[in-house]
Amino acid sequence: MTLTLPTMPTVRKYRRETTEVSSCLKYMIFGFNVLFWMLGLCILTVGVWAWSEKDIFNNLGKVANAALDPAFILICVGTVTFVIGFTGCVGALRENTCLLATYAIFLSALLLFEMTAGILGFIFKDWIKAQAAIGFQSFIIHYREDPDQQNLIDWIQEDWLQCCGIEGPKDWDRNNYFNCSSRDVGSREACGVPFSCCKRQPTELITNKQCGYDVRKPGFPKERQIYERGCLRAGEEWIEGNLVLVAAVKVGIMILQILGICFAQNLRGDIFAQKAKWH
């Protein structure tokens, strides 16, 4: 009698297929851009809120100087930051090659714009200086009409550059409230300057909003406690004194943009390689 031994089942070894998509690269792009997404959303929200407070959405005729409106600038910056952060964040998380390509295109366009602006700014610096003077003049003219522009020019004069006017305090004669002829219509600010032109005293705890009254009158004491330097020259001196810092920040931003483009393209390549395995 022949005994038949039971055959042992064949054990097949399956090799676990590794993915081509780098998790480190994927979540690094996601984490970096989710911050930009939220930052852009916050900036956009503040800009829209500022415009709605001024009721510009219902009075579009006020948008004559929209390019100089801080609220409009916030809306533009917030929108660009939000879109770039959204495409990079969702594109990396969902491994969407279309969104990643859009993200890389946006960064490339922004990088090209910054490089072009930097080159043109160096070549046409006199024209840019003239445009800055025109923009600051518009701020002075509409100082009491737009609270955003008023706060911006006060910050420039008092906190940032410690200056007054474009070329000097006399430029505030362009404003109807500070013009010396406004004394005839009862303006208390006539022949004066805004408080942001005044030099803060070391012992001053509360800002004196009336410190600029009458400082440009002919009979006013010679020693005026206001900034005599114009903001245009002060801005030039600030750029010259911080040129290395400005250049370092600019180069750092451009390096981050180049890395973002490279990382997005590498992740797209990994996703395409993984899809090729499936087929």
TrEMBL record:
Where is the protein situated, by its record's location annotation? Membrane
Q: Which UniProt keywords apply?
A: Disulfide bond, Membrane, Transmembrane, Transmembrane helix
According to the UniProt record, which cysteines are disulfide-bonded? C164-C180
Domain of life from the UniProt record: Eukaryota
Membrane topology (UniProt): Multi-pass membrane protein
Question: Where are the membrane-spanning stretches?
Answer: 25-51, 71-93, 100-124
Family matches, as SUPFAM superfamilies: Tetraspanin (SSF48652)
Instruction: Please report a single Pfam family linked to this protein.
Output: Tetraspanin
One GO cellular-component annotation of the UniProt record comes to: plasma membrane
The record's comment on protein family reads: Belongs to the tetraspanin (TM4SF) family.
Report the protein name in the record: Tetraspanin
UniProt organism field:
Sitophilus oryzae
State the taxonomy lineage: Eukaryota, Metazoa, Ecdysozoa, Arthropoda, Hexapoda
